[in-house]
Amino acid sequence: MIHRILVRKYIGQSSLLFYCCALALFSFAWIRVWVVSLLDMGQFKTILEQFREFEKFAPVDFDSLFTYPGRVGMIFDEPVVILCTVVWCVARGSDVVSGELGRGTLEMLLAQPIRRSTLLFSHATVSVSGLVLLCLMVWAGLGLGVYSTCVNETVQQPTLQIPFLNLDLPLTINDPVKQEVPLRDRVDVRTYAASTLHLFALGFFVLGLSTMFSAVDRYRWRTVGFVVAIYVLQLVMFGVGKAVSSLDWLLSLTFFSCYKPQKMTSLVTDDGLNAPWSLTQVIPDGVFPPLVYPLILVGLGILFYLVAFCSFNKRDLPAPL
Amino acid sequence: MLANPFCAVCSKEAILISMSHFKEISEAEQSGQAGLVAGQADIAGQADIVCTESLTKRYGDVTALSECCLSVGRGEVFGLLGPNGAGKTTLIRLMLGFLHPSSGRCLVDGFDPLIDGVALRKRVAYLPGDARLPRHMRGGGVLKFFAEMHPRGDLQRSLEIADRLELQTRRRVGFMSTGMRQKLALSVVLGLNTPLMILDEPTANLDPTIRATVLDLVQKVRDSGRTVMLSSHVMSEIEDTCDRVAFLRHGKLARELTMADLYPRHRITAQPPAGTVSIPAEYGQRVTVQETQQGRLRQIQIDIAGELAPLLPWIDSLKLQQIRIEPLGLRAVYDSVHSGGGGTPTNEPGTPVRSNE
């Protein structure tokens, strides 16, 4: 089902985009963790408290962000990370049929003794593998950031507690002592395995969607247009559903509701490393167990791929323009 | 050319031939006999390599190809002629399985493109009319890629052809001129050792020297016992290369012609005689007379098929003025088909064609 030579061609074709996205994701994740260390937790809390009324727009409650794991976990909701992942998925997905048709190269390719499904499988192999590597790049950058960064923490002053009055009296009047603590002592990198899976699931969904449109379309620009239009529409539905309580039913119609990387971080913080991998325990404020959400995205992505396979096998291939 | 496998009598034979051919090829491939030379299988010479029956392709109200029944024999160079939009490329794309026919069917080397397109394309090398190749690859990389993609590919041969076509294979495709890209595509296709080669306008965008080289390579393909289907708008190329041609017009197969029939044809152009031109009954089947008018100049055209010498006394008796005799090439047949005449004689023997009174 997979053609080695085709895979090699697709790798060569997509390598520049992959290296750019990988570099951007890795370095951004690393720098983003470093930025976490620059901002004192107390200051961060003060800043965030001013935006309490906008908490409903946030993917998680603010309280979960007052921890280092929560702040580091925000990386998975950063626009740069989402953008790079989506760019890879839309670029690769839209290329497979309508891209080759637009460039006129599909005819020579399909004149070789290969099945159309082999072409799609080979392309999907490279695209999905690239997506996996990009997601791992985010995790790797995050991990490097955690292991190479230290945070300054204020040491708790020794106090004397006065019984009955419930007062804590400091035993010293010196300035609070600050100590440098390696971030790895506060953050376990394994916490973000589930978040990384969510990022992959989101990417796989977009990749499948792009591939499906590409398989039925003739022009790549139109394929990209359709996918971006759907993406933006779903994003708007997600935002409106969050903002207006009477329209919260929109949340069940948008795939962004299944993208919950920060929720996974909160679950790990509260219930341990195994919590996000449950298929039976429903998450707080959720409908399904935590592992079901990425599985929905992956399932829809597979469905899109199946539609792409069927339509590509049945369609007439127009002559190059 | 022997049996049409679609006809009721021959279909069983064709299926058996196809099955035995497939088995033979498979066994050869399994036993590592790479590069099974085309035409060496037992099937060679037993059935047409291309057969279409009532092949039709419609796009909504537009009929791109209508009821096309065509056969291409093994080892011949077959020309496809017709104006733009006549259905040549549609026919080729249907044969390769790029398009699904609205009705009818076709077999290429015993394989139906809709049933076993992969086995079919193992036996076919195809050069599209507008061959485009991956722009990010270098010429050498493209040759290597396609030589590895096709089980009958041969990189060394492709490189030799590229060298013969004076192509710089180190350059990236994106930086190649149109002619260079055509040479590269030709090197890819001519490097494949397949029983059937389909070339859609192979000499487009090439200079005269390279055109001659390409036609020479096509002749060598034919000499090796393989079949070539050639589509071109250049009549001289078809005349020089093909054994047989088919004319397509408005999606229909307008006429088939063997080149052997074409060569002993002549056209006599002259000022019209004073009296009526009557074709003698014994020459009626191979003489066509028609009158043309170009501005104020009226002319008579007498097209003669076959040996000219026996008709010279009759021509002399017509007392023609300003007479000009020329070989009637493919161009004349093409013009005739294009204008809707089908290139067939229209005059009955003994019929007075015109009167000058």
Helices and strands, with pairings:
The complex is a heterodimer of chains A (321) and B (357).
Chain A: H1 4-38, H2 41-49, H3 68-73, H4 79-103, H5 106-110, H6 116-148, E1 150-154, E2 159-162, E3 167-170, E4 178-182, H7 193-216, H8 220-243, H9 261-271, H10 292-314
Antiparallel strand pairs in A: 1-4, 2-3
Chain B: H1 11-30, E1 50-59, E2 62-72, E3 77-81, H2 88-96, E4 103-108, H3 117-121, E5 124-127, H4 139-149, H5 155-164, H6 178-190, E6 196-200, H7 208-223, E7 227-231, H8 235-241, E8 244-249, E9 252-258, H9 259-262, E10 265-271, E11 287-294, E12 297-305, H10 312-317, E13 321-327, H11 330-338
Parallel strand pairs in B: 3-7, 3-8, 5-6, 6-7
Antiparallel strand pairs in B: 1-2, 1-4, 8-9, 10-12, 10-13, 11-12
Helix pairs in contact in B: 5-6
Question: What do these coordinates show?
Answer:
The complex is a heterodimer of chains A (321) and B (357). Chain A has 321 residues and is mainly alpha-helical. Chain A has one domain. Chain A is built from 10 helices and 4 strands; from the N terminus they run ααααααββββαααα. Chain A has helices spanning 4-38, 41-49, 68-73, 79-103, 106-110, 116-148, 193-216, 220-243, 261-271, 292-314; strands at 150-154, 159-162, 167-170, 178-182. Chain A has a two-stranded antiparallel ribbon. A two-stranded antiparallel sheet of chain A has the order 2-3. In chain A, a hairpin with a 4-residue loop joins strand 2 (159-162) and strand 3 (167-170). The model of chain B is unreliable at 1-26, 28-45 and 342-357 (pLDDT under 50). Chain B is built from 11 helices and 13 strands. Chain B is elongated, with a radius of gyration of 23 Å. In chain B, the strands form 3 sheets. In chain B, strands 5-6-7-3-8-9 form a 6-stranded mixed beta sheet, sandwiched between helices. Chain B has a 4-stranded antiparallel beta sheet with strand order 11-12-10-13, with no helix packed on it. A 3-stranded antiparallel beta sheet of chain B has the order 2-1-4, covered by helices on one side. Chains A and B meet through helix 1 and helix 5 of A and helix 2, helix 3, strand 5 and helix 4 of B.
